[in-house]
Amino acid sequence: MSDVTRTKHGRPVHHWRRDLVELAALFTAVAVADAVANMIGHGPDGPALLVVSAVVLLATVGFHTWWARRHNHAPPTAHDTGARSPADAERTGPEPTTATTTTTPAAPEGQVPGTGTLWRMRTTVRDEPGSLAALCVSLAERRVDILSLQAHPLAEGTVDEFLLRTPDDLSASEITRAVSRAGGSGTWIERADAHDLVDAPTRILGLATRTALDAAELPLALRHLLGRCTIRSLPAATRKGEAASAEGSPVDGVLEDTVLRLKGPEGEVITVERPYLPFTPTEFARARALVELDTRLGPRIPRSQDVLTLPEGDSITVRRADTGDVDTAKAMHERCSPRTLSMRYHGPVRDADRYLNHLLSPRFGRTLAVQTASGRIVGLGHLLWDGDETEVALLVEDGWQRRGIGSQLLGRLVAMAVEAGCESVYAVTQASNTGMVAAMRGLGLPLDYQIEEGTLVITARLDATPVGSRLPYDVQDGRDGPAERHQQAEH
Fold first, then answer.
1. Phi, psi of 72, deg, nearest 5
2. For residue 20, what is the enclosing H or E element?
3. How many CA atoms lie within 13 A of 159 on its CB side?
């Protein structure tokens, strides 16, 4: 029982035994004082005893004062969170009678909060209680912070997808070894960035919105949804009157390990291949839902346009084009010279019209058309999704060449590719096509050249060009140029 004064019903409470002890101590003290007085007054050494008693009393008082200051009023130790130092008391004022202290967990030793390396990791664990817990404990022992977790259930086991923040000195091999020792198998890991911090439902809704606004976004949305993969489209009929095989035309889609086959909006077969990581049923369901959304909405493109004035004073309009422009595009073909058509299509001139339905379809990329005030199309620029690569192609009518139209088209197409997250774009042309070569050089981007049997392939690397940067054609007189206004209207 504590010997401090307690209270009951607001009044102090004393025990009768304490009063008895205090009374006995008082009588004892009186008796001792009387004995000492008699000894000093009647004994021969009285004065000496009086001096010794005074010295002992002073020494006792001094010792008691030192002991009390050392033990009863010492400042709080580092582990004592219930008291404040005098400096803190002066700084913050009187301590409240009642306080609640909330302790924030400290960051792991050697790691600054909010810093580290981001990783995306996927592993398969046994479908039994405690499997995931053992994996999390193994990661925690290595100071790994789990930012998000998605579970993809399978027939046998569960695929868990993690977003991790690790100390900078922890390598990918150390993470995978820790996961393997905790029971994970088939582990795959790659570096992540800040975009991966967005939770999965928000990211999927954003991709659905982009797809709803523009049919050309479907391949890009699938790529963002499923990660690094190759997406190809096989037409529903390989030749006129010949239907594709039943295997190539899935009704509800086919999931085959690292390959997805989905029925496209126009009956085509969309094949998605990811050789480094098998698809899960959850990913298959998400991809199929995205394709079904695109199918229900039908063909669509953003209706936006820019009006430009050429150096000669002529006004032209740059806008998105689709299959509704096939007839006007064929009319432009008729006005183009055979040499211009052969440089663009690299084949027999008579076959040029056959490519238009494919090129103008938003399912396979984006097309920009240059239109005069009278409504004639005098130029076409194509950004085509070619598997995991992106191709750019230009065609400008002979009478409108050497006026900067090709550079305007190419600049806008490259800006679209950057915005779509493409790492590079390539153009297939001929060495004699000086206009196309000059337009590619005018981008100011790193270029790679490759010549095969007279065909020149120019690849522009976009990895050094962030989405927010301005290309040379984006600024005019310190204001946003037409290319930037075009993209703002489009998205």
1. -95, -25
2. helix 16-42
3. 16
In a domain, 405, yes or no: yes
In sequence order, what DSSP letters do the residues of 160-180 get, joined into one string? EEEEEEE-TT--HHHHHHHHH
Nearest to 248 by CA among 272, 270, 281: 270
In the predicted structure, residue 44 carries a pLDDT above the cut 70: no
Q: Report whether pLDDT(426) > 80.
A: yes
Lowest-confidence segment of 36-40, 332-336, 345-349 by average pLDDT: 36-40
CATH of residue 417's domain is: 3.40.630.30
| Count of C-beta atoms within a 10 Å radius of residue 394 | 24
Q: What is the predicted pLDDT for the residue at 16?
A: 64
Contact assessment for residue 426 and residue 408, using Cβ atoms and an 8 Å cutoff: no
Euclidean distance between CA atoms 461 and 446, whole angstroms: 6
Span of 41-55, 142-156, 212-226, 262-276 with lowest mean pLDDT: 41-55
Same domain for 211 and 254: yes
Average pLDDT taken over every residue of the chain: 75
Distance CA 255, CA 100 (A): 56
Residue that is last in its domain, among 162, 179, 197: 197
Identify each DSSP E strand in 136-292 by its residue range.
Answer: 145-153, 158-166, 185-191, 230-234, 237-239, 242-243, 254-256, 259-263, 269-273
Examine the domain organization and report whether 230 and 175 are in the same domain.
Answer: no
Closest by CA position to 411, among listed 439, 378, 446: 439
Residue 488 has pLDDT above 60, yes or no: no
- Helix residue ranges per DSSP H, 253-391: 281-297, 326-335, 338-345, 356-360
Helix (H, G, I), strand (E, B) or coil at 187: strand
- Looking at the fold, whether 254 and 319 belong to one and the same domain comes out as no
The reply to whether 422 and 276 lie within a common domain is no
Q: Does residue 353 register a pLDDT over 80? A: no
Range of 172's domain? 117-197
Identify whether the C-beta of residue 464 lies closer than 8 Å to the C-beta of residue 420.
no
C-beta separation of 282 from 275 below 8 A: no
The number of helices, as runs of H, and strands, as runs of E, in the chain is: 14, 22
Task: Identify the burial level of 168 via C-beta atoms within 10 angstroms of its C-beta, where 0-12 means exposed, 13-18 middle and 19 or more buried.
Answer: exposed
- Cβ(361)–Cβ(300) below 8 Å: no
Question: Which has the minimum average pLDDT: 207-216, 240-249, 345-354?
Answer: 240-249
Please write the tens of the pLDDT for every residue from 239-278.
444 444 444 455 678 888 889 888 887 778 888 888 778 8
CATH code at position 121: 3.30.70.260
* Mean pLDDT within 205-220: 85
**What would the DSSP string read from start to end of 64-104?**
HHHHHHHHTSPPP-TT--S---HHHHHHH-SPPSS----PP
Q: Between 37 and 116, where is the model more confident?
A: 116
The DSSP 8-state label assigned to residue 473 in this structure reads: G
Farthest-apart Cα atoms in the chain, separation = 146
